[in-house]
Every structure is written in structure tokens, then in C-alpha cells.
TrEMBL record, chain A:
Residues 32-166, 198-275 form the Exoribonuclease phosphorolytic domain. Gene3D superfamilies: GHMP Kinase, N-terminal domain. Keywords: Cytoplasm, Exosome. This is Ribosomal RNA-processing protein 42. It comes from the Eukaryota. It comes from Spodoptera frugiperda. GO terms for cellular component: cytoplasmic exosome (RNase complex); nuclear exosome (RNase complex); nucleolus. Belongs to the RNase PH family. GO terms for biological process: exonucleolytic trimming to generate mature 3'-end of 5.8S rRNA from tricistronic rRNA transcript (SSU-rRNA, 5.8S rRNA, LSU-rRNA); nuclear mRNA surveillance; nuclear polyadenylation-dependent rRNA catabolic process; rRNA catabolic process; TRAMP-dependent tRNA surveillance pathway; U1 snRNA 3'-end processing; U4 snRNA 3'-end processing; U5 snRNA 3'-end processing. SUPFAM superfamilies: Ribonuclease PH domain 2-like, Ribosomal protein S5 domain 2-like. The lineage of its organism: Eukaryota, Metazoa, Ecdysozoa, Arthropoda, Hexapoda. It is found in: Cytoplasm; Nucleus, Nucleolus.
UniProtKB/TrEMBL annotation, chain B:
Keywords: Cytoplasm, Exosome, Nucleus, RNA-binding, rRNA processing. The keyword Cell inner membrane does not apply. Belongs to the RNase PH family. It comes from Spodoptera frugiperda. InterPro entries: ExoRNase_PH_dom1 (IPR001247), ExoRNase_PH_dom2_sf (IPR036345), PNPase/RNase_PH_dom_sf (IPR027408), Ribosomal_Su5_D2-typ_SF (IPR020568), RNase_PH (IPR050080). This is Exosome complex component MTR3-like isoform X1. GO terms for cellular component: cytoplasmic exosome (RNase complex); nuclear exosome (RNase complex); nucleolus. It comes from the Eukaryota.
């Protein structure tokens, strides 16, 4: 990662620590670092969130537009991800320096959200074959402290949770053109159904073992990590009891290897299983945090938000 | 996307005529039924677990005479040409890189895909394939042997009937070996498409398309590509997209590992044939040179005689 220099001895220290399930910051191999999450931080966006995972800082803004669905899929909306690596995070990102990393993350997100088990694009349909919502998810990386993929996926899910689409009051057909009338009441809006939206978990192979949530130092000790995208559990994101008691099984929506190394088949399988467990726990924790925040805003007990000044 | 105005691009809002054919409106179930007949045999006469390489593996190295190394792989209707060029200094780089780089570029021919015409400018899929190919090749090449240099690997997909990434990886492995780039192991790759409980080994384009389309019911679906270094028992790249549970992914991985294993002797055969061909060619050239020399010598003798006589 960005401009980080570690001596061979320091690397050995980290590798040996991981081997003994005790990392340099006191965590075990399956622990995450503390996170701060805040939603509704950007006033001009339809939904937004900011996530700080130790030194990693992600800001996500969601914008919605009305678009024409593709002829192949007339009943589906669209979702697109853009990642911007700000030069504030690292001087290397200046100009087109962060492009490769940004494209990589955006591609991972797109792949993770591709399946309807992960995110149902049908809910973005307004008028089949004519009009649909298009969601632009703009991800801004403000600071890099390792483990970008996980942080990005969580921030995106929080921002989508925060997104409200105005309800359509009427759609008038006028000579083949659609004339939409949207409600201008800010409270007359529907939330997106994002319970199943996937979270990405990075398993960083250090030595023979895999760790979750690697810090920038740990990332530099590893040549390969496995990123898995796992669907969420909708019951964690809803206060209603009856919602989907079926408790959908978590599924992999994407698996990819990041880095230049290779792994043994058994390590890969172990990493996948470990990622699945981590993703389930993470998803539950994220759901609780989001519901708590929503409740606090509803009853106005939420302490004043200071945005970036804290 | 920036358009190349020097080419004829066609109207922007044109759509393929196939949209208006009967095939287009077929439902998911109908399409699925078409893939398999009653006996569980696929459209092209293969069994579910039968890869195209097993019935006919058309591959050869040394395909492009101008390139340092090249290969051609044909899996029935998937046809891929690969060429590898000499190492050259990495352009526009100020820092010294200890490891050599592999630069990959995958390009689809404009007429290669059955569903739509490909644009001339590289699109997202081509870029994604290039990145995946580079990631797969990196662990197999001894990159420390050419520091600060890069090897260019160009893939041109003439026809795409599914599994083009694994065909590209196989071709690139052959071409790198043909170019005498030092490598750790033979790299082989295979793709599997999963729909429900059916596993289509080495899928065609239609099977791939259906595996990445969202089914009406939440069943496992997805596309997995695996590339292995068989002798080292390492996985150099693994990509999954879709929505699959743990069991299904693990099963697919096992199938893929076996398929990759099966490809190794075929690749070896091609490489040995290539080496034998090179030897034969050299021998023939040497013989020709000897003959020429002999002819020249006899001419010389004649002239000498003439001179002496004169």
C-alpha cells in the first residue's frame, strides 16, 4: 500500500504473530478493527454514508436518475458503481495513479451486485420497458488504511439503506412517451430493499493462515488475498418480525483472488468458509447499527451530527 | 465511452435484429430446457461433465511468425490466438521494479460474439478479462528473471462460444512456453457453469449466458473459472460470479481441479510437438545449408580449374 516501508524484520514479526493467532494490534485472526458509521451525511445525495474503519475512510453518495431499461431486460433497473481514489489518500493516486485500484474495486462491487439474489433490480422498475431508476453509487476513498473492499461494501450497503426513492404518483402515456409524476413530499418515499445486498470480505493470506480485515502493514506482508462477496440476511435489516422468516441462506455472489501470488486448493477452501462466517457476523452487526441509527433519527434522540468535524 | 470517429460506428441507438425474433422472447425455463435433451446430453452432443478439450483439443504453438512466441487454441467454436513478445523496458515508469511485469491485453474481434457486435474501443469486459489473465499468469512466470522489463501477452478472441477466459489462459501458457519465457509450471485453466444442481463443464456461450442470468426461483447459478499450476498444486486464479452456496462452490472447485489436471498432458503434447518441429526445422535448415555449401565448393573447384587452365 501507499508509500509504506517495512523492514524484513518487521515483516517476520507480523508473519509470526499471525501464525500464533495474535496480531500486532492485539487482534486475533478473525477480528475486525473498530468502525464508525454514519448515514445521511451528504445533503445533495439521495442516500449517503461515511465509514471509518481504523484508518480507512470511505464516503459513499448515491444519486438516482430515471433511465430507459435495456431491451434485453425490460423489467430491470440499473445500478452502477464508480470508485474514486482521492489523491488525499495517497500521493500515488494523483492524476490517473489510482485508476487501476478504482476499476478493480468497482468491478468487484458490480460482480457482487450482479445476481438478483444479492440485489433485486426489479424494485427499480417504474414502467416496464419504458422507464426505470438508475442508481449511481459513487464511492470516494478519502484515506487508505488497508482492507478497502470490506469497507467499501459496508459503506455502500449503508448508503443504499439510507436511499429513498420518491414514489411515482402517476405515469401518463402520451403518444408513446411516458410522463411521470413524482411525489414532491420528502416523506412520501420508499426505501430500497437491500437486506440481501452483499458484503465483501477480504481474506489476506499471511504465512499459511488467512486473516480478516488486514491493516496496511499486514497487506504489504501478503502476496495474495481472496475476496468473497456474500449475500446478507434480510431479517437483520428490518424491524418487522414477519419479514422473511425463511432466513435466506447466505450465498457467494462473487469470489476473486487479488494479488500476484497463488494458493493451495485447501487454503482457498478454508478461506472461503472463513469469509462466509465473517460476512454473516459483519452483516448482522451492520444491520443492528443501521436500525439503531434509523430509530434514533425517528425519535430525534440522535446526537447532533458534526459531519467531518468531530 | 469515447467513440472512434474515424471508423464507421453505426447509429448509437441501433439494436440487434435478433431482438425481434422468436428466440428472444423465450422464457428462462424454455431456454434451460433447450440446453439439455431428455437423456441429459447437451446441444452439441457432449455429456454434462465432458469438456470440449476431451473430444478435440486443437491447439498449436508457433502460430504467428512475427511474434517471439504464439499459440492458437480452439475449443470447437471458441477460437483464440495468443502472441507473446520479447521483454522490453517498462514504458513510463520512474521506479525500478524488482519483478518483471506481464502486460496482458485481451481483445474480442468485432464479430466474435453471437449476441451483439463488439465495439473497437476496449470495453469493460475486455479490461476485466485482461486483468484476470494477468493475475492468472503472474504466479506461473519467473518474474525475477527480468527485472524492470515487461513481457507483452496479446490475446485475440476470434470467436467466442463460451469459456473464453480459460481458453485465453491456456493459449497464453502455451505461447509463453513457446517464447521461452522462464516459467515455474504449466498453467491450465477450465470453466464451469452452474445452473441449479447441473454443472456444465466447459460451457458454451448459451450455457454461460443462462448461468449468469437471474433465474425466476432462487437456485444456485454462476460461472466459475479456475487456473492451476498442476505440478506445484497451486491455484493461480479463481473467479466466481453468480449466486451459489458453499457446497455448490466446493463441488464445482473439485470438478474444475480435475479438469485442469486432465488438460496437462494435452498441453505437454502440444509443447513437445512444437519442440520436435523446431528441431526438425533446424535440421532441415542445416542440411540445406550444407547442400548449398557443397554446391558452392564444387563451383569454386570448377572455376579454379578453369583459371588454372587459362
Amino acid at each position: 500500500m501507499a508509500g509504506l516501508l517495512l523492514s524484513p524484520t518487521e515483516k517476520v514479526f507480523i508473519v509470526h504473530g499471525v501464525q500464533d493467532d495474535h496480531r500486532s494490534d492485539g487482534r486475533t485472526n478473525i477480528d475486525y478493527r473498530p468502525m464508525e458509521l454514519e448515514t445521511n451525511v451528504v445533503s445533495h445525495a439521495t442516500g449517503s454514508s461515511r465509514l471509518r474503519l481504523a484508518n480507512t475512510d470511505i464516503l459513499v453518495g448515491v444519486k438516482t436518475e430515471i433511465d430507459v431499461p435495456t431491451p434485453e431486460k425490460p423489467d430491470l433497473g440499473k445500478i452502477e458503481f464508480y470508485v474514486d481514489c482521492s489523491a488525499n489518500a495517497a500521493p500515488q493516486f494523483e492524476g490517473r495513479g489510482g485508476e487501476q485500484l478504482a476499476i478493480g474495486i468497482a468491478k468487484l462491487m458490480q460482480a457482487a451486485y450482479h445476481s438478483s439474489d444479492a440485489f433485486d433490480l426489479k424494485q427499480l422498475c417504474i414502467f416496464e420497458g419504458k422507464q426505470c431508476w438508475k442508481i449511481y453509487v459513487d464511492i470516494l476513498i478519502l484515506e487508505c488504511g488497508g482492507n478497502l473492499c470490506d469497507a467499501v461494501s459496508m459503506a455502500v450497503k449503508a448508503a443504499l439503506f439510507n436511499t429513498k426513492l420518491p414514489s411515482v404518483k402517476a405515469a401518463l402515456m402520451d403518444g408513446g412517451n411516458i410522463d411521470l409524476q413524482l411525489s414532491d413530499d420528502p416523506y412520501d418515499a420508499k426505501s430500497l430493499d437491500i437486506g440481501t445486498a452483499p458484503l465483501l470480505v477480504t481474506l489476506c493470506k499471511i504465512g499459511d493462515k488467512c486473516v480478516v480485515d488486514p491493516s496496511a502493514e499486514e497487506e504489504s506482508c501478503s502476496v495474495i488475498s481472496v475476496v468473497v462477496g456474500v449475500t446478507g440476511n434480510p431479517s437483520s435489516y428490518s424491524t418487522e418480525e414477519n419479514v422473511s422468516d425463511s432466513a435466506k441462506e447466505s450465498k457467494f455472489t462473487t469470489i476473486e483472488m487479488v494479488g500476484s501470488g497463488s494458493v493451495a486448493p485447501k487454503t482457498l477452501k478454508d478461506a472461503m468458509n472463513q469469509g462466509m462466517v465473517a460476512a454473516k457476523l459483519l452483516d448482522k452487526a451492520l444491520g443492528e447499527a443501521l436500525l439503531r441509527e434509523r430509530q434514533e433519527t425517528q425519535v430525534k434522540t440522535k446526537k447532533h451530527s458534526y459531519g467531518f468535524l468531530r | 465511452m469515447p467513440l472512434d470517429y474515424r471508423r464507421f460506428n453505426g447509429p448509437e441507438d441501433s439494436i440487434p435484429y435478433k431482438r425481434f425474433t422468436k428466440d428472444f422472447v423465450k422464457s428462462y425455463d424454455e431456454l434451460f430446457k433447450e440446453l439439455l435433451d431428455d437423456k441429459g446430453v447437451r446441444k452439441d452432443g457432449r455429456a454434462l461433465s465432458e469438456a470440449r478439450s476431451m473430444c478435440m483439443f486443437f491447439a498449436r504453438a508457433d502460430m504467428v511468425s512475427q511474434a517471439k512466441g504464439s499459440a492458437y487454441v480452439e475449443l470447437r467454436k471458441t477460437k483464440v490466438v495468443c502472441s507473446v513478445f520479447d521483454p522490453r523496458e517498462i514504458p513510463h515508469q520512474n521506479e525500478f521494479s524488482e519483478l518483471g511485469q506481464i502486460f496482458c491485453e485481451v481483445k474480442f474481434a468485432p464479430f466474435s460474439c453471437p449476441r451483439r457486435r463488439r465495439p473497437h474501443a476496449p470495453d469493460a469486459e475486455e479490461k476485466a478479462l485482461s486483468v484476470a489473465l494477468r493475475k492468472a499468469l503472474e504466479p506461473s512466470v519467473c518474474r525475477h528473471m527480468f527485472p524492470n522489463y515487461q513481457v507483452d501477452v496479446f490475446i485475440y478472441i476470434l470467436e467466442n462460444d463460451g469459456a473464453c477466459l480459460s481458453a485465453a489462459i491456456n493459449a497464453a501458457g502455451l505461447a509463453l512456453a513457446d517464447a521461452a519465457v522462464p516459467m515455474y509450471d504449466i498453467i491450465t485453466s477450465c470453466t464451469v457453469a452452474v445452473i441449479g444442481d447441473k454443472m456444465f463443464v466447459d460451457p458454451t456461450e448459451a450455457e454461460e449466458y443462462l448461468a449468469t442470468t437471474n433465474p425466476d426461483t432462487p437456485i444456485n447459478h454462476g460461472l466459475l473459472t479456475l487456473s492451476t499450476l498442476s505440478e506445484l498444486k497451486q491455484i493461480s486464479d479463481f473467479i466466481q460470479i453468480g449466486s451459489m452456496d458453499v457446497v455448490s462452490v466446493t463441488n464445482a472447485m473439485e470438478v474444475l481441479e480435475k479438469e485442469c489436471e486432465k488438460l496437462v498432458p494435452l498441453v505437454q503434447k502440444v509443447l513437445v510437438a512444437n519442440v520436435l518441429k523446431c528441431f526438425a526445422q533446424r535440421k532441415r535448415l542445416e542440411e540445406e545449408a550444407n547442400e548449398r555449401e557443397k554446391a558452392l565448393n564444387s563451383k569454386m573447384e570448377e572455376w579454379k580449374k578453369l583459371l588454372n587452365a587459362g
